[in-house]
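Hi Y.,

Following your request, here is the sequence exactly as I used it, all 152 residues.
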Amino acid sequence: MRTLDFSPLLKSTIGFDQMNRIFENAVGNNDISYPPYNIEKLDEDDYRITMALAGFSEEDLDIELDGGVLVISAEGADEEVDNERFLHRGIAKRAFKRHFRLADTIKVLGAQFENGLLMIDLQREIPEHLKPRSIKINKTADIKKIVDEDAA
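Below is the corresponding structure, written out as tokens. Let me know if you'd prefer a different format.
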């Protein structure tokens, strides 16, 4: 397998130390696609994750947010199923655990479960200190005056 080096991308960035690890996990992830899901961008700052969970009930599901990682999981079927009864079994109800790493600015608004679809609504909230702003260029005399006032 080929190893990718993302260090050239990180040369001109500050505070993105985790990006290399995230890229490596994404490239090396051989995860199967169960359960199927969609990620939608509903608006400029609104997102939705929709997972198809046929056969599961609301009580079977566990959703938690831990350290910026949204984890959706469920245990598999507890009941013994008569395999001789099924000629074909295409609706899986097996255990799963799906992780979604969220940016620091993403907030989980809530979740709904309807007709076998789990929908989780997300919203980007950019704190005031992260919003673009204009930086005024001060004269050297002005900076010295500000420093002298702060020292007094």
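The first strand starts at residue 37 and ends at 41.

Thanks again,
Q.
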